[in-house]
Design brief:
The chain is mainly α. It is about 50% helix and about 5% strand. It contains 13 helices and three strands; from the N terminus they run H-H-H-H-H-H-H-E-E-E-H-H-H-H-H-H. It has a three-stranded antiparallel β-sheet. Strand 2 and strand 3 form a beta hairpin. It starts with 8 loop residues before the first helix and ends in an 8-residue tail after the last helix.
């Protein structure tokens, strides 16, 4: 027999996402927002949480499409709803999962922008090192490109997790999972140069070990990193839509083009599944053709 969900159902779901799924605060907020959309739909239709049927959910998805929500966003919302009903099933609120057969809309593969090496060099060259934050910003962009970090990983990077002698940084990624990522000599040099400026900042309590600090002595926000990148990209005259993820994507793409193993790239990016990493294999056809001609046994002239 189904349990009737109480008023604390979303609170329990929040706890489930945080403790059992080990999701970040941003991911939890997104999941709860998706469930909120479903809740509003159910309220308008007079449907209780445990009584939702597959047909009700199809009507909900149709409504998302009707109001003009992009298929990619629809897919994300459906994923959030599926997660919620899996939780309800595990917690005994329902005995069958109405989302089991629910399908996401078909969406084409949308590849992020990628910067060329010369474009990255151009962006770096626009940084004014005479400004108080100049060397910090230079180090930030070098670390993003050198290590392929997520923006959340960058702003929480600790000074004690930079191993200068070994050439590695320790990164805490999604689900609090840690990984060691090689860091280039160039990035290490920029970090060392930044430390002279960092040592002059009056660090606020709780931020003593955070590597990249604001002028107020606190950690940087995600928005601040986006702002830095947007500003330098515009100064470089680059018209691409560049974000912190663009540097991560460029890192992976350039590694692949240079001959790196996909499994190695997966480990450095912190992807659980190799299929997630495969999006970075969009190198152009001419490069692929050149690789095949150079390395495939059937491409070599016969004796």
């Amino acid at each position: 027999m189904n349990k009737q969900p109480g008023t604390d159902i979303l609170g329990r779901y929040h706890t489930y996402l945080r403790l059992e799924k080990s999701l970040s605060a941003n991911s939890i907020e997104a999941y709860l927002a998706d469930v909120g959309k479903l809740m509003r739909f159910m309220a308008s239709e007079g449907i209780r949480v445990p009584d939702v049927t597959y047909n009700d959910l199809q009507q909900f998805v149709a409504q998302l499409s009707d109001v003009g929500i992009h298929p990619r966003s629809q897919a994300r919302i459906i994923s959030g709803v599926k997660s919620f009903y899996r939780f309800l099933l595990l917690d005994g609120y329902i005995t069958t999962d109405p989302t089991e057969l629910l399908e996401s809309p078909k969406i084409g593969l949308k590849l992020p922008e990628v910067l060329t090496v010369s474009e990255i060099d151009s962006i770096m060259s626009t940084i004014d090192l005479s400004l108080p934050e100049g060397q910090r910003n230079r180090a930030i962009l070098e670390v993003l490109y050198s290590c392929g970090l997520r923006v959340s990983e960058l702003i929480t990077l600790r000074y004690s997790d930079v191993y200068f002698d070994e050439g590695f940084i320790k990164v805490e990624g999604k689900g609090s999972k840690q990984r060691l990522v090689p860091v280039s000599d160039t990035a290490l040099r920029e970090i060392r140069n930044y430390l002279f400026d960092r040592n002059r900042v009056q660090v606020k309590k709780g931020f003593e070990d955070i590597l990249f600090l604001s002028r107020r002595g606190t950690g940087l926000s995600r928005i601040m990193i986006f702002h830095i990148i947007k500003q330098q990209t515009e100064l470089a005259g680059i018209r691409k839509n560049v974000s912190p993820h663009t540097f991560r994507h460029s890192f992976a793409t350039h590694l692949l083009e240079g001959g790196a193993n996909l499994r190695a790239i997966q480990l450095m990016l912190g992807h659980e599944k190799i299929t997630t990493t495969e999006i970075y294999t969009h190198i152009d056809r001419e490069f692929l053709r050149a690789e095949i001609l150079a390395h495939h046994p059937r491409s070599k002239p016969r004796e």
